[in-house]
Amino acid sequence: MPEPTSTDEWIAHLIAAVWRLDSPKLLTLARVLGESSGSPGAAILRSELAVSTGEATHLARLLASALGGRGGGAVREAMASLTTLARVRDLQQESTEQVEIVCTAPAAHGVAVRATFGAAVEMVAAAREQILVIGYVFTGGAAKLVREVAKARQERQVRVTIVGNRMADVVPALRAAWPRQVRPPAIFSREPDSADLSALHAKVLVCDGSVALVTSANFSRRGLHDNVEIGVKVRSPSVRKIVAFVRAMIENGEVLRVRW
């Protein structure tokens, strides 16, 4: 990349360097720039932005070229530009929010609705960074969907987290569908309270923190193919709150890691 000369040029180079990052990562990068007081190295970017080594190296090189040792003033201007870009991205997403009705049913009765299984597979196939599965019941009947998730893990290094109830009992069924050569998902379990039998009852699939399938369907043969189930597929910045909620459950010990 040629060395930018004017202020407009180096800001343009900066925006070009970070264009592929989503809003949360843009805000994270703004924070990292402030903490680094300059252009951060690839190792820091890889850790903070959760990107591949190749992506982090490429981004570090582009940032170094864009900032070019311009000092604290340029760093502050870069942070402001990143924050503004993140907000613009959010506004653009808010203006294009999408909601689709998704159903499992023997027949659609002439109503244009998406099938639960098809919508879930489509979301998984489009995922590039993270897949979060939250379920009340997981059975071997969901093996086809599990294999699609494993494929995303193997081919695109998508991070996979599965959260449910009594997951130690479920792991054998998941492991049977998961190819042995693929790195396993992170499994977390919520054990029902013995006093009031409360349980994690949500059924949600979240991909890349931006699109969610919220449904009455369990991750089972009947839930995905046979029962009458209704849900919504939502694309919105608000989906990030689901990820944040689950992360808080993990950090607060409400769900615990289960061995694969």
What's the gyration radius in Å? 21 Å
Number of domains: 2
Shape annotation:
elongated
Give the topology string: H per helix, E per strand.
HHHHHEEHEHEHEEEHEHE
Please, how many helices?
A: 10
Largest sheet geometry: 9 strands, mixed
Q: Any low-confidence stretches, pLDDT <50, length ≥5?
A: 1-7
Superfamily at the CATH H level of the largest domain?
Endonuclease Chain A
Give the strand order, joined by hyphens, for the main sheet: 2-1-8-7-6-3-4-5-9
Tell me the name of the CATH class of the largest domain.
Alpha Beta
* CATH fold-level topology of the largest domain: Endonuclease, Chain A
Distance between the termini: 45 Å
Percent helix: 40-55%
Structure in words:
It is a single chain. This protein is an alpha/beta fold and 260 residues long. The protein has two domains: 7-94, no CATH class; 98-258, Endonuclease Chain A (Endonuclease, Chain A, 2-Layer Sandwich). The protein is built from ten helices and nine strands. α2 (23-36) packs across α3 (42-49), α2 runs antiparallel to α5 (72-95) and α6 (116-126) runs parallel beside α7. It is elongated and about 60 Å long.
Short précis:
The protein is an alpha/beta fold and 260 residues long.
List the topology elements:
Blueprint: H1 7-18, H2 23-36, H3 42-49, H4 53-67, H5 72-95, E1 98-104, E2 114-115, H6 116-126, E3 130-134, H7 143-156, E4 159-165, H8 167-177, E5 186-190, E6 204-207, E7 211-215, H9 221-226, E8 229-235, H10 240-251, E9 256-258
Parallel strand pairs: 1-2, 3-4, 4-5
Antiparallel strand pairs: 1-8, 3-6, 5-9, 6-7, 7-8
Helix pairs in contact: 1-4, 1-5, 2-3, 2-5, 3-4, 6-7, 7-8
